[in-house]
Amino acid sequence: MRLGGTVCFGHISEFEDKLTASGFRAITAPFTCETPREEINRYLEIIRRHDVLIAEVGVWRNPFDRERGRDNLEFARRQLKLADELDIPCCVNIVGTESSAGWDAADPGNYTEEMYGRIVSSIREIIDGVNPQRAYYCIEPMPWMIPDGPDVYLQLMKDVDRSRFGVHMDFVNMINSPRRFLAAESFIEECFRKLGPYIRSTHLKDSRMNLTQLTTMLNECSPGEGALDFVKVLQILDRYLPADAPVLLEHMSTFEEYRKAYEYIADRAKEAHVGI
Question: What residues have CB less than 8 Å from 201, skipping those under 6 apart?
């Protein structure tokens, strides 16, 4: 696998030094469709020079926002088009919500039949509007909206029925109950066994749960700060993913935090005899 993450930098003049110091072999795109093309080309030159894979382009905008939904759909299409042009395998978003509490909020409406139909239609609209030949439009699982488990993801793929609809794997987001947390490695293996052939990018992070205080609260955290056995987790990934598959650390704020997480995973990879 290619272990990496998000390169934390300020100006593009810092990007190459931060990229090489990170040790990353895969990264999230440091640009969007709104970045000037000459700047994108500068990033691409640096990235290719160091044999780094751009694993994914993020959308992270709500297609069902009451005021900006249509604009967000158009941005998703433009991001997917950019990914296709640059041969970036994964353009990723969440399905979205009608909630007014936030673009990624938990809401009862996230699970209605009407919302499910709108989700299927919006994904088709994005893919059909671009007709990508190399990139895949993918949905990141979320704890409180679909797809919140591997079987739900498989059903969504069947209902969307588009060859360029792929899987973005975030197993920690699907560890959304005590049962899944307490049997985490078994659940993670189920995720990869069922979804493995369709995975285009994977997020790597940890999970923790207070085992004594009621009621249940699960928290995402950096690798090594939670309960997951990353020797076993990395061995699962190694069994189901291609040798060059991107696996990305995420949700850290500084270069130092990413470096600490990278070194932790690198040590566990040595124990697991898994190449990163």
Answer: 55, 56, 89, 90, 92, 138, 168, 169, 246, 248
DSSP letters for 9-66: -SSHHHHHHHHHHHT-SEEE-S--TTS-HHHHHHHHHHHHHTT-EEEEEE----TT-T
In this structure, the number of other CB atoms found within 10 A of the CB of residue 118 comes to 16
Whole-angstrom Cα distance, residue 57 to residue 80? Answer: 8
Is the pTM higher than 0.90? The answer reads yes
Contact predicate 275/2, CB 8 Å? no
Structure confidence at residue 93 (pLDDT): 98
Tell me the mean pLDDT per 10 residues along the chain, length 276.
Answer: 96 96 98 98 98 98 97 98 98 97 96 98 98 98 98 98 98 98 98 98 97 94 98 98 97 95 98 98
Phi, psi of 200 (to 5 degrees): -110, -25
In this structure, what token pair is assigned to residue 271? 């124990």
Provide the token pair at 263.
């070194």
Token duo for residue 191 = 């995720």
Residue 223 contacts residue 206 (beta carbons within 8 Å): yes
Which of 180, 243, 176, 168 lies closest to 204, judged by CA?
Answer: 168
The per-residue pLDDT for 259 is: 96
* Structural domains present in the chain: 2-272 (3.20.20.150)
Given a contact cutoff of 8 angstroms between Cβ atoms, the answer to whether 171 and 191 are in contact is yes
Cβ neighbours for 97, distance < 8 A, ≥ 6 positions apart: 62, 64, 103, 104, 105, 107, 109, 110, 145
